[in-house]
UniProtKB/TrEMBL annotation, chain A:
GO molecular function, one term: ATP binding
Family to which the UniProt record says this protein belongs: Belongs to the ABC transporter superfamily.
Keyword field: ATP-binding, Nucleotide-binding, Transport
Domain of life: Bacteria
Protein name: NitT/TauT family transport system ATP-binding protein
Domain ABC transporter: residue ranges: 21-252
From TrEMBL, chain B:
UniProt protein name: NitT/TauT family transport system permease protein
Superkingdom, natural source: Bacteria
Family: Belongs to the binding-protein-dependent transport system permease family.
Signal peptide: none
Organism annotation: Xaviernesmea oryzae
Transmembrane segments: 31-58, 78-105, 112-136, 142-159, 209-234, 246-271
GO cellular component: plasma membrane
SUPFAM superfamilies on file: MetI-like (SSF161098)
Amino acid sequence: MTTSQAPLIPAPGDSRRRPLVVMRNVSKMFSSGTLALSDMSLTVEPGEFVSLLGPSGCGKSTALRIIAGLGDVSTGTIDWPSSRINSKGLPEGDISFVFQEPTLMPWQTVFGNVYLPLKLRGVSKSAARDEIMKTLATVGLQDFAGAYPRELSGGMKMRVSIARALVTRPKLLLMDEPFAALDEITRQKLNDDVLRLWRETGITVIFVTHSVFESAYLSNRIVVMKARPGRVHADFPLVTSMSRDAHYRTSEEYRQACEKVSNMLLEAIGGEEH
Amino acid sequence: MVPASLENSPPLAPSKPGFFGRNRDRLLRTLIPVGVVISLILLWQAIITVNGIPQYILPGPLAVANSLYNDWGTLWPALWVTTQITMQALALALIGGVGIAIFLVQSKWIETAFYPITVILQVTPIVAIAPLILIYAPTTQVALLICAFLVAFFPILSNMVQGLKSVDHNLLNLFDLYGASRWQMLLYLKLPSSLPYFMTGLRIGGGLALIAAVVAEFAAGSAGAGSGLAFRLLESQYRLNIPRLFAALILLSVLGVVIFMITSFIAWISLHRWHESSLKREN
């Protein structure tokens, strides 16, 4: 997977390295009159793992959906400096989305669900088979290709959803609180899986969460957002000297990271006008 | 999942529930209704025999069976005609119902414009339109077909519209995200997603097509060769051939049950692997 993916992802230090996505002064007003996002700017570089963290209603999911092209901006622009743009202004095949729910088609097997993005591009099933099985193997589901979603646990369904997002080898993976509904043990396991995939593939991730612990564990950059209207409160890198694994979870460094992120979040909530 | 070979093998230990124990439920579920029907038939025959009721008032089951056997030459072609009309009407209703449902959900304006017309067609009692249809249709058979079609068509249409509009919004977003065309969205998402609704429509439509075929034939009052079971019912009534009337009635019931079984089976085949309605609860 790593070797075959290499040409698609610019290596760190690549001279052609340009930002992947640039949001400039984006605002979003819903038809109900609610200002969901106000003047949000965000530049994401290739290979980053960015968490959008904030209280509910701070517009983090809205921001993610706007980046994905699911909904228009009211004002502002979104640019994709390193992608080919299609007629809808979206980077052709460069983004994938993982929803809060697994969002699988219940009438399709695991294989059929992961095949979907390729099927929509007109790739034949036989041509896609190898890629699908390889992607399923990366999430540990190679033995479940023929299973139906109802036969899987919540965590396994989420893995299928991640495999479906990865099968097109996107540059950018958008994840909207993907593990919020899972139990703690499964969530930790999937966090480790996502980190491993991020390291192995060099993919860029924007991860929406309301969990301080999750964001501090996963990301190398955290964007803390504020509600009413949704806007960026703080944007800072999170560098650790340790590799992020079970050992890191119990380390002093992780505790400090959590404290820092937590304080930022408290600031953001405290600054809200009620 | 227990492999089939294990399921059918004899029990290994006497302490475990034996073959009869495990299958008792299923066995009883078949035996009890069959037993009830047989008892009722016996009771029916007993009442006839004990009270000496004449055949032209109420025939016994033996007389009905006799008529079924002797009049088979008359009843069979009539059954075949009714079956054909019902099936053709159902097929047309399926094509029309699904087709128009797809057309209606293309845009809000199309739905706003055309849905009321389909409702008017549905709520108008079919017997009331039948005379008109009989005037305009080239043959009686075509008129019957139109009547049965109109009745069977609406449940399929309304279920299908509901199904096409009930697609998971996240899945719609997902298809949008991957740049799916309208056609792909319909073929890979909306149609499979509305399959359970379609199956409900099919089961209701199948039953209604038969009812409408019979009612329309009553209204048409067609006679002679090429007439269906409904005409044979009326004819038997006029001739006070009550055993044959019962025989025709039984054939209609059997036809209804067969249609129900076929549509239920189709629904089961297409849904049992994934849809909640066809799954056994495992707790």
